[in-house]
């Protein structure tokens, strides 16, 4: 039930719950600030005994008032308040005084450790003429059209009015912005454009089905005259002057490079999809998979670059509404044979949820009109009446017979309601789902697997697809826009050099002795065949409960218990061979009822004298009640649990048993591995044995895209042992729907610091904070508010001001690295293999001046590896590039659930798992409860976030989320 590292990583290839938090193409961390100080109040003085320490801010305005924005050069050399490094004091670093806020600059020219590897990156250099003017026009269209109609209007306007537009073919973003390489004849222009759109109304309005031109008024007004000089200055490596990213100019170039592709493809966020890239794939459930590509402009050390990557996502299948529903809902599969059947109340709710906001068109008459489904009628089609223009009451079924000579077949189904207020009804059987609509519903495991298969290309194949897009008929170079705006786009991937960091020596156990091991395999995996975990636990009191399963499957339970205890013993973990009570066997439907499930779990706990260390749950299959089980066990009962499936008990492989044992050991307080050479011994200039350090991670998970009310979940974790730094405690909170900034960070961080002090009898001397899940457009806001929250947490301890390093961790980006097989140094590596673990890149494709790098810390078994992007926004600990890269890579070997380096630095990984666990606590499943938290309700504002249940004291400080 718990996901493996590999499956988790690959699932992220497919945009799902969080897929459209993707940033716009022009990414700035400090994008809207001038070099003049604009906020006057200094950051509050921590722990000085004064009364002016502010409370935790509750709004961005309050928080901003406590910060001063300053230019980078003014702050670079002011170091008086920072703790001294142990050595290497001679270089310049981008650190500001605590009362200023400046994004960290790269401390050096990049790292030097590790052998060099020649690579290719899917970045394509874009050369522009800084003196080339781009004229930005504001576009107002009345009545307001859809994006598709707006683009049709723009095309017709250009074709009919080339003279007034000075012969230019401008680029249009589909909303308000039109960009031209030359100035139009006048600064203000007004046009009236007609498009053939049906004025016919469905039943509920008297129909006039003739096509005629619908007239649109288009006002165009010059608003800006842009050039590329500011962008050239921003990209320049020379000089220390801080300049903001020229967002307007970059957005203009991005629109220009997307213009041709947008006309030929289906745009979704930053990606474009087309059936010409390999057709469509039926993934079941009324959805199809479509191939496409992501593109985005990025400022890099080599200049402006176009990042282009292969992409796959799910769309609604364009079929009749009734066949669509039959594919979506198994219970409706008999509709075609039983045309007289109606819908149960439960089915009606599901149908309404599946169809809400989907665009449809009708097939009983010729029209280009498209409608959006708002809901279903309360009555069936048989019983629906509506008034015509003369006030005469007409029956829907009679209207379609008289007007179109069509007999409604499915009379006991409701009609689609396509207006929020007016009675506008369409019989389902006459409606077809429009093509080109992204599937926002939650994908099933089977659908996800099929999409993963579509998107899972080995490096050679993925590189070939990307190269083909760049030169192909739908790619960014397929039109004439680049030439019109004097842009030169390279069609060759960027060549660059990376480095391969060496793996750390690891510390394992061996019968009470310490054993060292260096992962020398190419994939950097290691095994525990002749070793123990570094710290094994003793589990004397545990129980097992089974849900479902055949009689034959249940006979495997005794064998499973024996082999699991034996495998644990081999790994240095003591698991009692006898459960405190005999295994409990329950039917699967117990997971459907929260009350019964809670009663069963509490009964087991009482039978164990309320002193149960572990509960193993074996399930016949995956079930939505899994979340209820975890919540009840961890909040109400007070026991950690480990779930597994009966299908895995049939073979009982050594690997399965070992994975289970590692998870169990971590959950009850043990650890798998530690670094043999402690961090203080590896980096004595930063870390000291007598100066403990805390590694913290934070993440926020948001509800499903179709859920417009559920709260977001924030989680913060922190290491509480030093120098091993491989055991973490967590805190979770719910917060406002889709809010990315962590509301209660100060409180959560404060609690974790207190836990650290309780365990080590002192507070950490340094804080290294990893923030996951932040897009680049949010960098500055997150730094501004969350750095203050961490400092506020520290201020609650007298005279406590530790130096803080704040780094953002990104997995949802589109930079890919490929071995450059044309270079002799890589001839030993197949071009169809991924880059080796430890591959780091901090030049050419990284930020022109700021402190970021790409690290591929794991071995990509399937598909193409996605390196993790680390961007240090704040660094009072004054790391060099080599130091921070080595620290992150070494930590990736300490993840408790597996014997390999993982793709994400563990503090961020654990925060992600903890936030996901908090989400499970809220997404309750109970078949006896009609409110399943799945129905979307339109609201003016999200409701107040429901608080998470409190964790049991028995569980609170364990890594229960692993």
UniProtKB/TrEMBL annotation:
<dbReference type="InterPro" id="IPR003100">
    <property type="entry name" value="PAZ_dom"/>
</dbReference>
<keyword id="KW-0694">RNA-binding</keyword>
<feature type="domain" description="PAZ">
    <location>
        <begin position="327"/>
        <end position="435"/>
    </location>
</feature>
<dbReference type="GO" id="GO:0051607">
    <property type="term" value="P:defense response to virus"/>
</dbReference>
<dbReference type="GO" id="GO:0003723">
    <property type="term" value="F:RNA binding"/>
</dbReference>
<dbReference type="InterPro" id="IPR036397">
    <property type="entry name" value="RNaseH_sf"/>
</dbReference>
<dbReference type="Pfam" id="PF08699">
    <property type="entry name" value="ArgoL1"/>
</dbReference>
<feature type="region of interest" description="Disordered">
    <location>
        <begin position="71"/>
        <end position="91"/>
    </location>
</feature>
<dbReference type="InterPro" id="IPR032474">
    <property type="entry name" value="Argonaute_N"/>
</dbReference>
<keyword id="KW-0810">Translation regulation</keyword>
<comment type="similarity">
    <text>Belongs to the argonaute family. Ago subfamily.</text>
</comment>
<dbReference type="InterPro" id="IPR045246">
    <property type="entry name" value="Piwi_ago-like"/>
</dbReference>
<dbReference type="InterPro" id="IPR012337">
    <property type="entry name" value="RNaseH-like_sf"/>
</dbReference>
<feature type="domain" description="Piwi">
    <location>
        <begin position="614"/>
        <end position="923"/>
    </location>
</feature>
<dbReference type="Pfam" id="PF02170">
    <property type="entry name" value="PAZ"/>
</dbReference>
<keyword id="KW-0687">Ribonucleoprotein</keyword>
<dbReference type="Pfam" id="PF16486">
    <property type="entry name" value="ArgoN"/>
</dbReference>
<feature type="region of interest" description="Disordered">
    <location>
        <begin position="1"/>
        <end position="24"/>
    </location>
</feature>
<dbReference type="InterPro" id="IPR014811">
    <property type="entry name" value="ArgoL1"/>
</dbReference>
<dbReference type="Pfam" id="PF16488">
    <property type="entry name" value="ArgoL2"/>
</dbReference>
<dbReference type="InterPro" id="IPR036085">
    <property type="entry name" value="PAZ_dom_sf"/>
</dbReference>
<dbReference type="Pfam" id="PF02171">
    <property type="entry name" value="Piwi"/>
</dbReference>
<dbReference type="InterPro" id="IPR003165">
    <property type="entry name" value="Piwi"/>
</dbReference>
<dbReference type="InterPro" id="IPR032472">
    <property type="entry name" value="ArgoL2"/>
</dbReference>
<keyword id="KW-0678">Repressor</keyword>
<dbReference type="GO" id="GO:0035194">
    <property type="term" value="P:regulatory ncRNA-mediated post-transcriptional gene silencing"/>
</dbReference>
<protein>
    <recommendedName>
        <fullName>Protein argonaute 7</fullName>
    </recommendedName>
</protein>
<dbReference type="GO" id="GO:1990904">
    <property type="term" value="C:ribonucleoprotein complex"/>
</dbReference>
<feature type="compositionally biased region" description="Polar residues">
    <location>
        <begin position="71"/>
        <end position="82"/>
    </location>
</feature>
<keyword id="KW-0943">RNA-mediated gene silencing</keyword>
<dbReference type="GO" id="GO:0006417">
    <property type="term" value="P:regulation of translation"/>
</dbReference>
């Amino acid at each position: 039930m718990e996901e493996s590292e590999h499956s988790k990583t690959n699932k992220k290839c497919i945009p799902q719950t969080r897929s459209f938090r993707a940033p716009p193409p022009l990414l700035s961390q400090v994008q809207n600030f001038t070099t003049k100080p604009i906020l006057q109040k200094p950051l509050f003085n921590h722990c000085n005994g004064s009364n002016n320490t502010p409370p935790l801010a509750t709004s961005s305005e309050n928080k901003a008032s406590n910060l001063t924005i300053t230019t980078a050069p003014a702050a670079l050399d002011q170091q008086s308040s920072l703790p001294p490094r142990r050595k290497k004091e001679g270089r310049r670093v981008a650190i500001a005084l605590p009362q200023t806020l400046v994004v960290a600059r790269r401390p050096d020219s990049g790292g030097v450790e590790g052998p060099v590897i020649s690579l290719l990156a899917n970045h394509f250099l874009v050369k522009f003429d800084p003196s080339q003017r781009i004229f930005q026009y504001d576009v107002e269209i009345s009545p307001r059209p859809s994006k598709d109609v707006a683009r049709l209007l723009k095309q017709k306007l250009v074709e009919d009015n080339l003279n007034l537009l000075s012969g230019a073919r401008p680029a249009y973003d589909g909303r308000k912005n039109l960009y031209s390489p030359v100035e139009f004849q006048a600064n203000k222009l007004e046009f009236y454009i007609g498009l053939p759109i049906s004025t016919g109304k469905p039943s509920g309005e008297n129909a006039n089905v003739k096509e005629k031109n619908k007239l649109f008024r288009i006002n165009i007004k010059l608003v800006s005259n842009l050039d590329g000089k500011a962008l050239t200055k921003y990209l320049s490596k020379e000089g220390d002057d801080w300049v903001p990213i020229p967002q307007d100019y970059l957005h203009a170039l991005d629109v220009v490079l997307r213009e041709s592709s947008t006309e030929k493809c289906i745009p979704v966020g930053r990606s474009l999809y087309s059936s010409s890239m390999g057709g469509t794939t039926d993934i079941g459930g009324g959805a199809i998979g479509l191939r496409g590509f992501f593109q985005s402009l990025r400022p890099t050390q080599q200049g402006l670059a176009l990042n282009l990557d292969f992409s796959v996502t799910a769309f609604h299948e364009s079929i009749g509404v009734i066949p669509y529903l039959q594919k979506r809902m198994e219970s409706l599969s008999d509709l075609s044979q039983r045309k007289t059947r109606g819908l149960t109340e439960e089915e009606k709710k599901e149908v309404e949820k599946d169809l809400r906001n989907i665009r449809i068109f009708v097939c009983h008459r010729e029209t280009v009109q498209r409608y959006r489904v708002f809901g279903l009628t309360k009555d069936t089609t048989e019983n629906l009446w509506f008034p015509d223009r003369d006030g005469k009451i007409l029956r829907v079924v009679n209207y379609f017979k008289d007007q179109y000579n069509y007999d409604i077949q499915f009379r006991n189904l409701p009609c689609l309601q396509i207006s929020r207020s007016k009675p506008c009804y369409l019989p389902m059987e006459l409606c077809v789902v429009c093509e080109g609509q992204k599937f926002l519903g939650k994908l099933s495991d089977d659908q996800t697997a099929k999409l993963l298969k579509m998107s899972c290309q080995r490096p050679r194949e993925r590189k070939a697809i990307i190269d083909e897009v760049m030169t192909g008929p739908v790619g960014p170079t397929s039109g004439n826009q680049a030439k019109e705006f004097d842009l030169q786009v390279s069609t060759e991937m960027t060549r660059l050099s990376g480095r391969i960091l060496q793996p750390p020596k690891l510390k394992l156990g061996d019968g009470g002795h310490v054993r060292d091991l260096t992962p020398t395999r190419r994939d950097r995996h290691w095994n525990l065949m002749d070793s123990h975990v570094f710290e094994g636990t003793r589990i004397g009191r545990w129980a097992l409960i089974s849900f479902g399963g055949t009689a034959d499957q249940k006979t495997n339970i005794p064998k499973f218990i024996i082999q699991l205890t034996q495998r644990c013993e081999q790994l240095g973990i003591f698991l009692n061979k006898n459960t405190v009570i005999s295994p409990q066997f329950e039917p699967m439907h117990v997971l459907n009822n929260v009350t019964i499930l809670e009663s069963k779990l509490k009964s087991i706990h009482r039978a164990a004298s309320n002193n149960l260390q572990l509960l193993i749950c074996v399930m016949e299959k995956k079930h939505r009640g899994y979340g209820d089980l975890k919540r009840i066990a961890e909040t109400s009962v007070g026991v950690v649990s480990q779930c597994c499936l009966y299908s895995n008990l049939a073979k009982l492989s050594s690997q399965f048993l070992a994975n289970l044992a590692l998870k169990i050991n971590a959950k009850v307080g043990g650890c798998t591995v530690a670094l043999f050479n402690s961090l203080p011994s590896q980096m004595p200039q930063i870390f000291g044995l007598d100066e403990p350090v805390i590694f913290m991670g934070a993440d926020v998970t948001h509800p499903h895209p179709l859920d417009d009310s559920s709260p977001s979940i924030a989680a913060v974790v922190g290491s509480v042992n030093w120098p091993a730094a491989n055991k973490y405690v967590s805190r979770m909170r719910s917060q406002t729907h889709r809010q990315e900034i962590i509301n209660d960070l100060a409180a959560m961080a404060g609690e974790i610091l207190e836990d650290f002090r309780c365990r080590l009898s002192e507070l950490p001397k340094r804080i290294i904070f990893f923030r996951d899940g932040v897009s680049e457009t949010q960098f500055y806001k997150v730094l501004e508010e969350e750095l203050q929250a961490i400092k506020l947490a520290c201020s609650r301890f007298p005279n406590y001001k530790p130096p803080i390093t704040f780094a953002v961790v990104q997995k949802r980006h589109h930079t890919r690295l490929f071995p450059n097989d044309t270079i002799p140094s890589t001839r030993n590596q197949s071009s169809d293999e991924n880059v080796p673990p430890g591959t780091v890149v901090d030049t050419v494709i990284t930020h022109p001046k700021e402190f970021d790098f790409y690290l591929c810390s794991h071995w990509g078994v399937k598909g193409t590896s996605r390196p993790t992007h680390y961007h240090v926004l704040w660094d009072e600990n004054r790391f060099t590039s080599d130091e921070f890269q080595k620290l992150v890579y070494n930590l990736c070997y300490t993840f408790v659930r597996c014997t390999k380096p993982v793709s994400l630095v563990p503090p961020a990984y654990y925060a992600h798992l903890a936030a996901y666990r908090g989400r499970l606590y809220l997404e309750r499943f109970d078949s006896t409860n009609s409110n399943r938290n799945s129905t979307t309700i339109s609201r003016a504002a999200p409701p107040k976030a429901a608080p998470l249940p409190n964790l049991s004291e028995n569980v609170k400080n364990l890594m229960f989320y692993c």
